[in-house]
Amino acid sequence: MTQAVSLLVRARRILVIGCSGGGKTTLARWLSTRFALPFVSMDREFFWLPGWVSRPRAEQRAMITARIDEPEWIMDGTNSSSFDLRLPRTEIVIWVRMPRLLCLSGALRRWLQWRGQARPEMADGCPERVNWEFVRYIWTFERRYAPIIVAGLKEHCVPVLQIRSRAQMRLLLDFLGRSPNSDFATNHVVKHSAE
Fold first, then answer.
1. What angle do CA 172, 174, 179 make, to 5 degrees?
2. Which pLDDT score, from 0 to 100, does residue 6 have?
3. How far apart are CA 121 and CA 44, in angstroms?
4. pLDDT in tens, 81-122
5. DSSP summary character for residue 46
6. Which residues cross the membrane (predicted)?
7. Of 15, 30, 42, 195, which sits most exposed with the smallest number of CB within 10 A?
8. CA distance 66 to 167
9. Cross-strand partners of 94
10. All domains of the chain, ordered by start, with CATH?
11. Contact yes or no for 89/71 (Cβ under 8 A)
């Protein structure tokens, strides 16, 4: 387990995944600053065009391929359909796996904060929105999407660190802000496991 923690501290290509509203973007931005690594928002850079128009899939994959070839990044985005491209280049995955009510409240707070405008990590011309499809996505994320994520992570044997509560998130931030010898290492790191 200590190896996985030291890997996080040394990693130059980190993937942060999880359900919308859980805090993965906030964590990815913090890590980007902490480790001086380029922040990559999949929503902004690959997926969306103005007006919430989805970029064609072949174009998305070409752009992702070009970006992951770079030597350093913190990538914010779950999108398991591009795991085959991203996971082989990822040194460690941080899975922000919060309870769905917390994700729903986070998405609602975010909507209230950014209502009518695009967040910095979203493509221009895509103002913050919450609709029933998005609520359903969050509500069913663990049942519908987590098994796909687990299978993808197992297939590529990437070290995984799961964060399942705000308390664990604070511990991780405290740990990374202090030193690599914290108790966080032995209590919350899961090496090569996503379950």
1. 95
2. 73
3. 6
4. 999 999 999 999 999 999 999 999 999 999 999 998 999 999
5. I
6. none
7. 195
8. 36
9. 16, 161
10. 1-177 (3.40.50.300)
11. no
